[in-house]
Design a protein that fits this description.
By secondary structure, this protein is α/β, with parallel strands linked by helices. The chain has three helices and four strands. A four-stranded parallel sheet has the order 3-2-1-4, with helices on both faces. The chain is globular and about 35 Å long.
């Protein structure tokens, strides 16, 4: 299994594109870990919405500690044999996890 860690901080405008790229992956044995790093917009609520919609998505919320701290938090929560990071303002091509 692959763990995809997405650090989240005030990206409600972009998160949809990153998540769509994960929903459309051709390889399906992966989990998504959304780490809300103290967002002040609606990003945290979007994380919760995705986690309730997809059983392979988990949402975590923490006090703001910066990008590296959010990624490290996600690594601690990861269950996969492989770890990949996806920034929330980016996306994966459909076969990226293959």
């Amino acid at each position: 299994m692959i763990s995809v860690i997405v650090p989240i901080y005030n990206v409600e405008e972009y998160l949809r594109y990153a998540m769509e790229s994960l929903v459309n992956q051709t390889y399906k044995d992966f989990e998504v870990i959304l780490v809300d790093d103290g967002s002040t917009d609606n990003s945290g609520q979007l994380c919760d919405q995705y986690a309730s919609e997809y059983d392979w998505v988990s949402a975590y919320h923490k006090v703001n500690g910066g990008l590296s701290d959010a990624r490290n938090y996600g690594v601690i929560k990861a269950k996969g044999d492989w770890i990949v990071f996806l920034d929330p303002d980016d996306y994966f091509e459909p076969c990226a996890l293959e």
